[in-house]
Amino acid sequence: MSTEPAEPGTESLLEAKDLELWRGERRLFSQLSFSLGTGELLHITGVNGCGKTSLLRVLCGLTLPETGEVSWRGQRVMRNRADYHAEMTYVGHRESLKGELSARENLSFDLQLRHASSPEDIDQALDRVGLARARDVMARGLSAGQKRRVSLARALASRARLWVLDEPYTNLDVPGRDFVDQVMSEHLATNGLVLLVAHQSHGVTGGRIRQLELA
Amino acid sequence: MPEFLEFGKHTTYVVSSFALVMVVLAGNVVFARRRLNALVNRTRRRLSAEEKS
Amino acid sequence: MWKFIHKFGSPPHFYRLSVVLTPWFGWAAAILITAGTLGGLYLAPPDYQQGEGFRIIYVHVPSASMSMFVYVNMALAAAVGLIWRIKLAHAVAAAAAPIGASFTFLALATGSIWAKPMWGTWWVWDARLTSELVLLFLYFGYMALRAAIDDENRADRASALLAIIGLINIPIIKYSVEWWNTLHQPATISKMGKPAMDGDMLTWLLLNIAGFMCFFIAVLLISARAEVIRRARDQKWLKQALGVT
Amino acid sequence: MEVPGLGQAFALQVGRDMRLAFRHLGQLANPLMFFIMVTTLFPLALNPSPQLLEAIAPGVVWVAALLASLLASESLFRQDVDDGTMEQLALSPQPLALMLLAKTAAHWLMTGLPLVLISPIVAYGLFLPQEAVPVTMGALALATPILSLIGGMMAALTVGLRRGGGLLSLLILPIAMPVLIFGARATDLAMTGMESVGAIYLLAALLLLAMSLSPFAMAAAMRISLD
User: Fold this and answer.
1) C133 at the D interface (CB within 8 A)?
2) What is the pLDDT of residue A201?
């Protein structure tokens, strides 16, 4: 089930070598290997419950695979988490927001952990995802779509090289979806990498699109 | 009280502690054995079912 | 050296080995414990001070020493499993816990049965008995955590970490209990003073300790086999081992 | 792209947690209320004669402090794991051990420190001799962080489980017992006018051990729970 190797010429940053993962008695995938280079998007698809999210979590270093290794820039992720996490960002199912903090407070905490970011950077990130008016609204007061936009703002402003996106389109309206496609295309153009799990087809242009089907 | 279980005024204490130890140790063996056998049988059934299908 | 551990660490190899070894350890345990018990009960002279009651030592001391021995081994196996991710080590740790808890319970029970004729009360806040009680809580905590987590893999890793935390804390608990005991306990109630053991008293005690050790290994091999089956991913060797062809 | 230093990340995390805590103070009053209520139970349960209360005062204060910190540990990580922010923390470039230590420090400031500050009043209610109060406060100031750190380790282990409550206390109490022994002993010695510096040193030693080892255990436990 491994896909063809990365295009020669683009140095592969993310390497997965014969990953295997079980959920209870069921094996989700095994001998799964691939490598991802700059400017490449890996679109992971599969039926519900086939382990797409689990695979993403393994690639992020959140879940420990049964066997196999994930390495970034040739180094095992589990060995040097700080370097890897500094260059990646994860948008998961849950919005990872504190309900009692405003969108701005949430974002400023998340971003300042990664790099010095001034209040202007925060506001600019929120404006870019169309939340200019909702900067100081408590996160619990935001709609699902708005919360998803805050997560996207976090990914955009994180200056990460690798985006790991789990169903980024959920809860987004049509303009929101176009916006996601647009930023992904831009990211690929500036030799970023994207790991995408999404049921519907994406509208990403540019960069090399690769497919990984999980049985 | 059979003669060999006679330990002066401490008979009940000595006999009861040894009896308790033997019971608990035997219990461990029975528990482990039964658990292993149950698991082996269940796994055999599962595997032979898989074998057929 | 690694090749040996890796080979031994592979479940199929361990499974075959344990099937062979279990009867040996089982019989050794039976013989040693019978000899130690009979010797302790009938051949060893009664203690001049405590009379016949002191014979309980022949089961109390082996239980107490095994309760500590099993916990340390459980924690080491868990650490090996956690650090080098060897499934067999987790299986051994999971198998050892109930046996260790039984030994701890026995040490407590025989200790309090022994205390009744000596000090007239079933429970005396003696340093060693109190440490034994805390060890029992550590075992229950380990088993309760393992039972509370459904996913096998996570249960192994979480309980392994708990066992390591427990192992680091055992010396601290022992010291603090001793420290607490010497301050509160008036000197008159001597601690569970083991009467002076001369030659022929000691041999039966050592026999029993060796017997308890063999017993632990025998039951461990049985339980660990079950744990290995539960964690088996590769069906091929499992079919072979269970004779499903 | 320079990742901020450890001190900055630590302060950031403590700042955020303090701001969050002040947003809903009610939830934080529980351990404090619990501590006061438990100590008022004893005079009600027993006859409130000063001699009796004075005799049991050290034990009551310290057992109440231990149980209050146990109660507080439950809420240490549960909120963050439920809303997903812990996941982002585990994926941030900052070491998870440091961030969890920062969270525990913030949690101690909100639940442990108030216990220390209110302990004189509770001690007074139990007729604890006045000369023992400073030593008790000092010992509590050393002991409550240890209890928070132990609670943090065990909370990280059980945070993902449905029925963590009873399990959490079963895991914490055996490990927290030496703290109780040394702490109650410090108050006891001070009460009888003897020198209690020995117990204080032992508590300080336990605090150093806890501060150096438990953050890594917390991080490992959290990574296992997030698996």
Assistant:
1) no
2) 77
